[in-house]
Amino acid sequence: MRKMKNKLKNISIGNKITLLYAMVFSITFIALTIFIMLNTWYYYQGVSENELLETMDKVITYLKSNDEIISDEISALSPNKNIEVRVFSDSENGNKIDMINKSQRKNPPPVPNSPPIPNKKDFTEKKERFETKTVHGIHYMSRRSIVEHNGKQYFIEVFRTNESERTVLRDFAVVFIIANILGIIASFSIGRFISKKVLNPISEITKTAERISINDLRQRINVPEANDEVSNLALTFNDMLERLEISFEGQKQFISNASHELKTPISVIQGYANLMDRWGKTDPEILQESIDSIKDETEYMSNLVKKLFFLAKNEQNMIIDKKELCLNTVVSEVIKETSVLEVNGEFNIIEDENVNIYGDFNLIKQLLWVFFENSIKYSDKDYIKIDITISCDDEFSILKISDNSMGIKEEDLPFIFDRFFRADKSHNKSVSGNGLGLAIAEIIVKQHDGKIEVSSEFGKGTDFIVKFPKAKTDLQKL
Which domain covers residue 245, as residue numbers? Predict the structure, then answer.
């Protein structure tokens, strides 16, 4: 049994479909053949029984209406040449009975051997029922009855041979056997054709998968015209390839941008290290300049690595600690921390009431710092002004950060949340940063099931609007 299961496991899907189709077709055809044969047999049996009953009734009517029995008249009661009638009377010798009619029909039954004459006991025990027997290889059906008329007892036997019907059934059986064999062979051929037709797209998928590599994700499956499971599989496979291609392209771009961002500070550090090695040992001014530059580049690299680490953790579905917290409190704390920055400007909180959200306290602080740092970095005004508006509507808790920075050009707005994107295409070091801040901000908002919107007019300022789902406490107030 185990070997059979192992063999079935190793059979290809195409062969399994072929076998299944052939098996279902064969079983159905064989069952239909058996059904037809049985129904035909029962039909013949029913016809034979009805003919015997009709003949028996005619004989009984004849015996009761005639005082004299004429053999030819009895024989003529049945027009069917396969039916024979025998009438017996009491014998003076015990159980025996004597046949009083001898067939003188011009066309006697085409039977070489008739059933033997029954005795009186057979008539008594088996009267009024059908009986089948085989005599010298010939099959018969018979029926017996006993009639009394004018004080005399008559024993009637009506029988017929079923050889012609059995011959027809044998011919049918031979035809059906041949038809079954041909049908099974045809079912295998049709099953193989159907399996190949059905599985051809899957074979295409397999071939395409074999041709795919990291360096070539442009391969696609030809989707069948039929709207079925195979076409859905092909569409799903193509969609998966599309996502993989986008993902790999994003990874390649990410690695390229990260390498570019790290290349410059490493080169600067290496240059100043060589400068100190040559002249810094004896020149305090060059030494201090080198140390300051190395510190700046190290800090830049440290911030970059932290942000890259954050992005990497996000790719691995990092776990965040969400709790119900007051958005007003988080904003106030971040503004207090900005007091250590040497910023010529003001931070204004515009709030009507306390607004609660369900989130991670540290991540929300990091989100606010991203917006504040961008407003400060990209401000071209002598006096920086940042307004933080906290409000809510029926569905969301809303945080709006408005500044008077240089703003964002309209053509750059669709890309500001892309990793390493900076509106300053030259990546001028006069404006620090690595283009990861807003990408991280978008990730934090998505982790809190929120959405972020931005509107900006170049030269006048930028508005960032973040909408968080309301916390349970605020929902209960409604």
Answer: 229-313
